[in-house]
Amino acid sequence: MSGRIQVSENRNAPVRAARIIARGGRLTRPGRGHGRAGHALNMGQTLLRCKMEPGALDAGRAGGQHGAMGRQELLHRPAYRVSWRRRLLQLLLVLLLGPLALIGVFRFAPVPATPLMIIRSIQGIGQDVGEGMRHDWVPLESIAPALAESVVAGEDNNFCRESLGFDFGAIREEVEAWQDGETPRGASTITMQTAKNLFLWPGRDPVRKLVEAWLTPQVALLWPKRRVIEVYLNSVEFGPGIYGAEAAARAFFNKPAARLTRGEAARLAAVLPSPLNWSAAQPSERVQRRAAVIERRVGQLGPLLDCLR
User: Structure pTM?
Assistant: First the structure.
């Protein structure tokens, strides 16, 4: 009775032993005290010695291969996930640190080109006059002080007092106007426009505005005010294919930027809201009125222009 029970319980012993052999293992004879498990293994050894079932070794090998494949799959899955997460982390680091590194470089180096210049070139804007893109970098000392003052008077009166590059008073007024159902006029500062010119595309979509708001404090904290206005005056669009003060002064007035008069500087500042439609060389009545307001406001700002000197 007990013999039949042991045979019944150890019917799969040859298969188990074959699997052990297929995996490169050794069968050892158990000593005393192994009880029923020992008898099962002994019976498997005896049966192997006497007669191996034709499919037993193949079944053992197949079982070993299946187990190896399962272990490989388990090992590969986490590695793939780790690799995917590592690549995503690397991409995020590039997006976060890349602009910061460029801001550090452009703190001292001239800006060779901006995304807007490239976009306008692809669009063919400015090429109809046969000149292509005109952009000549010059230091701030080679630009008439009247132009920087006119730009601040026309675009951002509180430029010298904005610690993070934002005019929070203007932003609050825009929010209140929006809540009252009025159309916001915009609260963009010179620092915000500089960050946009350096890295971003033109437009008013929310994504661009959010990225601009993230970049602006970095520029404001890493650059002094004179550097911000220097980069702005050398990269801003003054007309079709015309970028920077030097190119604008030569294109519109046939003189270097250092020799601009107050009236000419005010006219250049007046066309900044719509440089593709307004001309400083042939100003419309609207541009002339705006230039007069700017020139008059320069005399009223007083200490608000101190950071430019």
Answer: 0.71
